[in-house]
Amino acid sequence: QVQLVESGGGLVQAGGSLRLSCAASGSTFSINAIDWYRQAPGMQRELVATISSRGSTYLSDSVKGRFTISRDNAKNTVYLQMNSLKPEDTAVYYCYADLVGVAADFGPWGQGTQVTVSS
To answer: What's the rounded Cα separation, in Å, for the pair 55 and 69?
Structure first.
């Protein structure tokens, strides 16, 4: 099993920065990729960024140029660096582990961390 714990959310003014962390524990060798999703009230969940076990990354168009995703293998931690934050980035951010042999959406989720960007 894999467990995920997120941290780093908070309240920030527009234009500011935050760094989210997603720490994995357990059978981390089974992780194909770590995804960051976000969900704002009344909105659908949105995939924001992905980093694979090989290091390839994906960023959605809505955050490209402002957010970066990286990982520290020694700490089994993935980071989402968020710069130039906008009020529309306000959401609960979740990390998700895509696991070997596990169907999409059936892997483990973190507990979520609130990001609020004030204008």
So the answer is: 10
| Residue (of 49, 43, 44) closest to 66 by Cα position | 49
pLDDT confidence of residue 103: 81
Task: Say if residue 56 is exposed, middle or buried (CB neighbours under 10 Å; 0-12, 13-18, 19+).
Answer: exposed
User: 111: helix, coil or strand?
Assistant: coil
**Amino acid type, 69:** I
Distance CA 44, CA 28 (A): 28
Alpha-carbon separation of residue 108 from 23, 24, 66, 92 (angstroms): 12, 10, 27, 16
The string of DSSP letters for 20-86 reads EEEEEEESGGGEEEEEEEEE-TTS--EEEEEEETT--EEE-TTTTTTEEEEEEGGGTEEEEEE-S--
pLDDT at 105 > cutoff 90: no
Nearest C-alpha neighbor of 34 from the set 54, 60, 14, 16:
54
Q: Mean pLDDT over residues 24-47, rounded? A: 95
